[in-house]
Amino acid sequence: MTDFTHLDQDGRVRMVDVADKNISKRVAVARGCVTMTGDTLARIMDATVKKGNVLEAARIAGVMAAKKTADLIPMCHPLNLTHVSVDFFSDSDNNTLEIEASASLAGQTGVEMEALTAVSVAALTIYDMCKSYDKAMIISDIHLKSKTGGKSGKFLARRYQK
C-alpha cells in the first residue's frame, strides 16, 4: 500500500501517488465571506458596479480557478472536474457576501483544494471589481464546509453540524 505523503523515502517533496486508490465520486464544498460597506454591497446586488456584473465575473473566475488549481497549488493533482459551481448569498444586515463553491469528479483524489481555490479567486475578483468603491473590504473565513467520497468518507465542518 502506498503511503499518502508529499515526502519520498529520502525526505524530498513529491506529488502523492494515488494510483492504488479506488475511483469514487468525490464532492467538496467550500465557503468564504467578503465584508464591505453597505453601499458596495448594494451596487453589487443592483448590478451597478462600473466594471460590470460582479457576481457573474466572480462566478466565472471561480470556475476557471478551480480548473487551474494544479497550476496554482504545488503538489495538487491535475483533475478532470465533472462539475464546479459558485454561488453567492448576500446579507445586507451584516454587509457581507457569502461565497459557496462546489467541485466534483469521479476519481482517485479529492477536490477540496479546487473548491477552496474557487472561493478564494471569486472573493479576489469581487475585491478587484469593487476596490474603487471600498478598499477596506475584508476577505475572510475561507474554509471547507463538507466533502464526500474517498477513503476518509464524509466530512461536515463542526459549524454546520446541528
From TrEMBL:
Domain Molybdopterin cofactor biosynthesis C (MoaC): from-to ranges: 15-150
Reaction(s) catalysed by this chain's protein: (8S)-3',8-cyclo-7,8-dihydroguanosine 5'-triphosphate = cyclic pyranopterin phosphate + diphosphate
InterPro entries xrefs: MoaC, MoaC_bact/euk, MoaC_sf, MoCo_biosynth_MoaA/MoaC, Mopterin_CF_biosynth-C_dom
One Pfam assignment: MoaC
Key words, A-Z: Lyase, Molybdenum cofactor biosynthesis
Signal peptide: none
Family: Belongs to the MoaC family.
Function: Catalyzes the conversion of (8S)-3',8-cyclo-7,8-dihydroguanosine 5'-triphosphate to cyclic pyranopterin monophosphate (cPMP).
UniProt subunit comment: Homohexamer; trimer of dimers.
Identification of the protein by name: Cyclic pyranopterin monophosphate synthase
Higher taxonomy: Bacteria, Pseudomonadati, Thermodesulfobacteriota, Desulfobacteria, Desulfobacterales
Gene: moaC
